[in-house]
Design a protein that fits this description.
Number of strands: 11
Order of helices and strands: EEEEEEEHEEEEHHH
CATH topology of the largest domain: Nucleoside Triphosphate Pyrophosphohydrolase
CATH architecture of the largest domain: Alpha-Beta Complex
GO molecular function: hydrolase activity
InterPro entries: NUDIX_hydrolase-like_dom_sf, NUDIX_hydrolase_CS, NUDIX_hydrolase_dom
Largest sheet: 8 strands, mixed
CATH superfamily of the largest domain: Nucleoside Triphosphate Pyrophosphohydrolase
Distance between the termini: 36 Å
Radius of gyration: 19 Å
Strand content: 35-45%
Helix content: 10-25%
Catalytic activity: GDP-alpha-D-mannose + H2O = alpha-D-mannose 1-phosphate + GMP + 2 H(+)
Shape: globular
Cofactor: Mg(2+)
Oligomer: single chain
Protein name: GDP-mannose pyrophosphatase
Number of domains: 2
């Protein structure tokens, strides 16, 4: 839906990279708005596509992880998540990340939602998937830079985690809450 009175896209008058590293790429743009406003220094953070997974076991339990996040110097609950490799399909990346980080796999997968961490400054999207009926397939296969503990929790405990502020990653909270909003429409028995 594009109402006639929607704001128009901005015109980019110039664009230059300020810094380019795999996890910190920033470009500066000079912007001219349709209204005549000018923003001489608008910064965009470039990231690869991200994925995350609301994973539900064959017993109806949720697969969550905990890991330390240095930006906020804390450990919290999260969904399994990761980066889409160049040329990789987001679904394949999500399945790979779940298997590597938790050892869970299989099940029936479907797209859940697509999100932006911050559409004002980030150029990437996060694709969230729902995986119903997952089972342990292997041991965790973590990278040297990953320290992740796996937690299998009941739906009630997962809601408690949310309500008690034990999950703070917004890109993980939104898909988990969407799952709970729509949970009655997911008949696990029909999908296995």
């Amino acid at each position: 839906m594009n109402p006639e009175n929607d704001p128009r896209p901005w015109a980019v008058e110039s664009s230059e990279y300020i810094h380019q590293l795999p996890w910190f790429t920033v470009r500066k743009e000079a912007i001219r708005m349709d209204s005549g406003g000018v923003i001489p220094n608008y910064f965009i953070f470039e990231y690869p596509t991200w994925v995350n997974v609301v994973a539900v076991t064959t017993e109806g339990q949720l697969v969550l992880i905990r890991q330390y996040r240095h930006g906020i110097a804390g450990v919290h609950y999260e969904l399994c998540a990761g980066v889409v490799d160049p040329g990789e399909d987001p679904l394949v990346a999500a399945q790979r990340e779940l298997l590597e980080e938790t050892g869970f796999g299989g099940g029936t997968w479907s797209p859940l939602m697509t999100l932006s961490a911050n559409p004002g400054t980030h150029n990437n999207l996060t694709h969230a998937f729902l995986a119903l009926g997952v089972e342990v397939k292997q041991a965790q296969h973590l990278e040297l830079t990953e320290e992740i503990s796996v937690h299998i929790v009941s739906p009630e405990r997962a809601l408690g985690i949310v309500n008690q502020g034990e999950m703070v990653q917004a890109l993980h909270l939104a898909p988990l809450l969407k799952y709970f909003l729509d949970r009655d429409s997911y008949n696990l028995a029909d999908r296995l």
